[in-house]
Amino acid sequence: MFNVGDHVVYPYHGAGTIKDIEEKDILGEKLNYYVVFFPLNHVTLMLPENRIKSSGLRKIIQPKQIEEVVTAMQPTEYASKKEAARPYSKENETLLKSGSIIDAAMVIANLTSKEGERTNGLHMEDRKNLDRAKQFIVSELMLVKNISEEEAYQFINENSKGA
Asked: Which biological process annotations from GO are given for this protein (predicted)?
């Protein structure tokens, strides 16, 4: 399934690296746990092997897929009109929880478009979702492109209109 050293993405936490696979004896049952370190947050998570599939854990994207992320970050007229009527969208939170980098890029597109149309900026919940989406993408870009956090944020800002 996964191996030590694999770069993976865990929904809502972002990208990290499998540092170890440990066997634990819990209540007489032996289970393998994936130990995943998330460098951007400095968090380590232990995920039981029998919950990997349901957790949404996946490998990071391939470098050739970065162009899809850039395309998804581009605001559309449809997204802008759809978002304008609401103070914040549960749809954006749902997209962020999916664990998909494309979904996170769509959140950036939705919210940067909305931000450009508002004279007083985004509502607090929208700002939080925009920050989460950027952080999620940054964590993955750092591993895919082997770049720093600052370079990853710069990449997002250069490739999303109005960000």
From this structure: rRNA transcription
